[in-house]
């Protein structure tokens, strides 16, 4: 199995060095002879993110930097997924709030025939899912409202659609991401909705999630996701994903 590990970034100079070293250490322990690629998809950062990644290429094997237009996280992940070469393709957030070692559990589900595997912080999805601490009050409230909306109009039966640690087979990745239209944070919901529509088998692993106070998810981002949920449902109804 050749693995592509995709990390979308935008102005991550404070975290990207630590994150890449953690991912590299994990992958080296599994595949000391290679068999993987690490792809940072940078949305034209205005800080030193790209410079840091370039400097690490001499010490981290198979590290690539792909610079794309700043159209949103969903756009960056899409570009990475379609340019990756792995038979399995995973994307994770630049803060490593989900530890890289959780991929071990995903690997077991791929061997059982799953096409898309997500990680969940919500015990309603899978036993053992949890978080180290609660998020700030506003994010908790917006997250709860979002869950109701997503359950009703987006992806019924999955409570944590937004955690940034998901993996797909190459076939599923190419089939789904050539159809996606959402360029921002709502792309996770769209990917799962399309996977359901296209008949892919979705698996869920439990994680213990680490909250990062530097998270870039704002109130306006939540509101944009809420609006996009209706757009995704409308696209499905009207056949826009053909």
Structural commentary:
With 242 residues, the chain is an alpha/beta fold. The protein has one domain: Spore Coat Polysaccharide Biosynthesis Protein SpsA, Chain A (Alpha-Beta Complex), CATH 3.90.550.10. Helix content is 42%, strand content 18%. The chain has eight helices and nine strands. The chain has a seven-stranded mixed beta sheet. Helix 3 packs across helix 6 and helix 5 runs parallel beside helix 8. The radius of gyration is 17 Å and the shape is globular. The chain starts with a strand and ends with a helix. The mean pLDDT is 92.
In short:
The chain is α/β, with parallel strands linked by helices.
Task: Please indicate the percent range of residues in DSSP E strands (runs of 2 or more).
Answer: 15-25%
CATH level 1 name: Alpha Beta
Please compute the radius of gyration using only Cα atoms. 17 Å
Q: How many domains would you count in the coordinates?
A: 1
Strand order of the largest sheet: 3-2-1-4-7-5-8
Q: Judging from the principal axes of the Cα atoms, what is the shape?
A: globular
- The termini sit apart by 30 Å
Output the CATH homologous superfamily.
Answer: Spore Coat Polysaccharide Biosynthesis Protein SpsA, Chain A
Low-confidence stretches: none
Q: Which percent bin holds the helix content?
A: 40-55%
Structural class: alpha/beta
| Number of helices in the DSSP assignment | 8
CATH-level-2 architecture: Alpha-Beta Complex
Kindly state the mean pLDDT as a whole number? 92
The CATH topology turns out to be Spore Coat Polysaccharide Biosynthesis Protein SpsA, Chain A
- How many beta-strand segments? 9
Profile the largest sheet. Answer: 7 strands, mixed
User: What is the helix/strand order?
Assistant: EHEHEHEHEEHEHHEEH
């Amino acid at each position: 199995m050749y693995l592509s590990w995709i990390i979308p970034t935008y102005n991550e100079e404070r975290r990207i060095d630590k994150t890449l070293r953690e991912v590299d250490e994990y992958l080296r322990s599994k595949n000391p002879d290679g068999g993987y690629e690490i792809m940072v998809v940078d949305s034209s950062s205005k800080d030193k993110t790209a410079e840091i990644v370039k400097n690490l290429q001499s010490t981290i094997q198979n590290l690539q930097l792909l610079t794309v237009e700043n159209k949103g996280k969903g756009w960056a992940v899409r570009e990475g997924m379609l340019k990756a070469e792995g038979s399995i393709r995973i994307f994770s957030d630049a803060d490593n709030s989900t530890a890289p070692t959780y991929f071990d559990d995903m690997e077991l589900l791929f061997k059982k025939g799953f096409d898309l595997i997500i990680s969940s912080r919500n015990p309603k999805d899978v036993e053992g899912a949890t978080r180290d601490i609660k998020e700030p009050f506003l994010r908790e409230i917006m997250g709860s409202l979002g869950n109701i909306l997503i359950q009703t109009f987006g992806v019924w039966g999955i409570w944590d659609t937004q955690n940034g640690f998901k993996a797909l087979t190459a076939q599923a990745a190419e089939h789904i991401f050539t159809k996606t239209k959402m360029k921002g944070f709502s792309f996770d919901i769209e990917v799962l909705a399309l996977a359901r529509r296209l008949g892919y088998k979705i698996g869920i692993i439990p994680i213990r999630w680490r909250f990062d106070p530097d998270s870039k998810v704002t109130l306006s981002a939540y509101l944009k996701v809420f609006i996009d949920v209706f757009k995704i449902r409308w696209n499905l109804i009207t056949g826009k994903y053909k």
